[in-house]
Amino acid sequence: MTLALTDPPRHKQLRNIVAQWFTAPAVRSLDRDMHNAVRNTLMKVAELGECDFLHDVSGRLSMYVIGYMMGIPEQDHEAIFRWTNEAFEAHVSLAQHPELMTYFIDLMDQRIAEPADDLVSALVGGTIDDEPLTEEEVLLNCENLVGATENGRLSIAGGMQAFLEYPDQWQRLQEDPGLLSGAIEEILRWTSSAAHSMRSVTTPHVMHGQQLEAGDWVAVWIPSANRDESVFHEPDRFDIGRTPNRHLALGNGEHVCLGSALARSQMRILFSELLARYHIEPNGPARKVRSIAVRGPEALPIRISPR
Ligand code: HEM
Predict the structure, then answer these.
(1) Which atom of ligand 1 lies at the shortest distance from residue 199's CA?
(2) What keywords tag this UniProt record (predicted)?
(3) Which CATH entry fits the domain spanning 3-306: 3.40.50.300, 1.10.630.10, 1.10.443.10, 1.10.3720.10?
């Protein structure tokens, strides 16, 4: 029932219900709020002098942004942040977190009674072939949208980790902030936080000499594709000036990441602020997420101080 797991032609119709929230202009309209959220978050952690970058910076920011888009009142962000963290850390689907799902049911009921200008209301008011979505579909797509942000937090933190491991690239970016857009693409390639994408074959096809039959399942292992030595020069080098950089970190085709513009924009705002105002260094070993679905640091301890 979720966008990510729906086939065409229904997929496009479902995607159209929420797509306008994720276009480049829609994401640009969030710039000011994202800037404020980034500044506040960084000021708080810099006062403490140290933090877990994954939990306290990238996780909080990703949650704040999707919470804002979904119309979750700010006083509830902390609880949503805690519940999503609990589910992510236990590697279970958000749908298995009872408090989170109860919260979404209440939110959905409120928006049915009184629609507002947010993503939950868009789902509640959305129709496909003149039929409204069922409550279950609304609920599962809320869960899908919040769950998808795990990639955002992992790739942002993975990017920070890459800069800590390759400080020459951080310094290069500091000296030439014009490299930031390219650096974001390299972070996406390098971190490849979505580990795989799966499709079922619809017609018989031969690929690299391998016969595929209708109904076969094919998995694209994105981190492997993004280190393909026949495509990328020195793929195991983190190079913010890499060009061309035709990575597949955000998928491709019908299901290409709906949150692409949002993910890039969050990185642009956060890394600009960090580069301009803060000094960062590692504060202990990072821990990796153990999962076949996502990749990145589960914990990234850093020391942070104003420059
Ligand atoms: C850098 C961070 C991100 C990465 C690496 C990433 C990666 C991906 C990938 C690889 C897919 C395609 C899956 C497939 O082909 O089966 C995808 C789909 C999707 N992403 Fe992202 N994503 C990121 C951030 C986000 C964010 C912030 C959101 C916001 C809610 C989001 C929402 C979605 C949704 C809803 C889909 C399903 C689209 C569809 O099936 O039509 N993603 N993402």
Answers:
(1) 16
(2) Heme, Iron, Metal-binding, Monooxygenase, Oxidoreductase
(3) 1.10.630.10
